[in-house]
Amino acid sequence: MMWTTTVLLLLVPQLLSSTDTGNNANFNESEIVNEDFSDAPVKGQKPGGVKGRDTCSIPCEITVKLLRDEKHSICGQLQQSLLAFGRSTRKLIRDVLDEQQRAQDILSSQVTELMAKVQTLSSEVERSNTEMYSIKPVQSHGRDCSDIKDNLLSVVPKIPSGIYIVHPENTDSSFEVFCEMDYMGGGWTVMQRRTDGLTDFKRPWADYADGFGNLAGEHWLGLKKLFHIVNQKETRFQLHVALVSQDDVTSYASYDDFHLDNETQFFSIHLGRYAGSAGDALRGYDQDQNQDTAPFSASDVDNDGCNPSCSIDNRTVESCSTQHNQTGWWFNQCGLANLNGSPEDAEQNREQRTHILWDTWRQNGVLHVIKSVTMKIRRIATNN
């Protein structure tokens, strides 16, 4: 150890000067221990040492004492360092635990606060739902679209087409309808519309009775709602059928008196005088094709008059609804009109009539392919 050797060399002159000269003679040079300093050459000494008398010798007792003191000092310093390290480590652990506890307390507080907010929001949503369902139905705009037009005409210069709420007389409920206010004088209640093929008209009886589709697009208003509208007291309704072909040719068929029987009579249809350019397909060319007074039929309610079957174009037909791709209409041995016809299925016979049909609308004997159709009703003046 260089440091220890240096300290010993510095102490040697003092030790030698404080020792009696007479006693120095008693020390034999051979008794001096040089082994502890053999690894650290003294200044002026050549490497490897020399034989004979050492230039600097220290008594063994002093060397041992110095080494012992140095060891004790180093041990004490090491113990103090270990104690200090232990104290600092314990303090660090306590600080970390305290910090974790504070963080946990903060998180617990935040979780509690969030849970309270969630509970408050849930209560608000529940209260809002309760209030929403307890709100009374919106007051109707009129008994039908004709009535709405008459009521608004004096206060609104131009009445827009759109969805309105109607409440026909002698009914317990209101319902929405689409009113056409800018077609041929307005006031039309739309009962059926086909435009883009997005609504499936292959439906059972219940759907045709209640209605389906989107009022602003393709839809069937529903036989029950239609019955309530056209059977109001002291009212008469005109039925108007507007047709558009694939090549954008337009045509129409109109009946000046239209009403339905009730559900127990399967909503049988009743038509007045015909007018228009598309031909009277609902009555056809002979009585066997006449659909006036026919009850409504669907795939699961058969009132088409084919008992047990009909012969149409040399083909045997047991169900007109099945013949027209599971759609509903006022069939009478199938007839010449079905404005609810559904597009053909790939596996069906292409010769079968399975799409929108108005058989009397032809050009040079060729049947028009119908792209869109709208059925609508409007009040007409009564004789009273």
TrEMBL record:
GO molecular function: extracellular matrix structural constituent; protein-macromolecule adaptor activity
Assigned GO CC terms: fibrinogen complex
Organism superkingdom: Eukaryota
GO process terms (BP): blood coagulation, common pathway; fibrinolysis; platelet aggregation; positive regulation of heterotypic cell-cell adhesion
Listed SMART domains: FBG (SM00186)
Keyword terms, alphabetized: Disulfide bond, Glycoprotein, Secreted, Signal
InterPro entries in the cross-refs: FIB_ANG-like (IPR037579), Fibrinogen-like_C (IPR036056), Fibrinogen_a/b/g_C_1 (IPR014716), Fibrinogen_a/b/g_C_dom (IPR002181), Fibrinogen_CS (IPR020837)
Localization per Swiss-Prot or TrEMBL: Secreted
One Pfam family recorded for the sequence: Fibrinogen_C
Fibrinogen C-terminal domain segment(s): 136-381
Gene3D superfamilies per the UniProt record, alphabetical: Gamma Fibrinogen, chain A, domain 1, Gamma-fibrinogen Carboxyl Terminal Fragment, domain 2
Signal peptide interval: 1-18
NCBIfam families named in the record: GGGWT_bact
PANTHER family linked: FIBRINOGEN ALPHA CHAIN, FIBRINOGEN C-TERMINAL DOMAIN-CONTAINING PROTEIN
Designated name of the protein: Angiopoietin-related protein 5
Organism name: Cottoperca gobio
Source species taxonomy: Eukaryota, Metazoa, Chordata, Craniata, Vertebrata
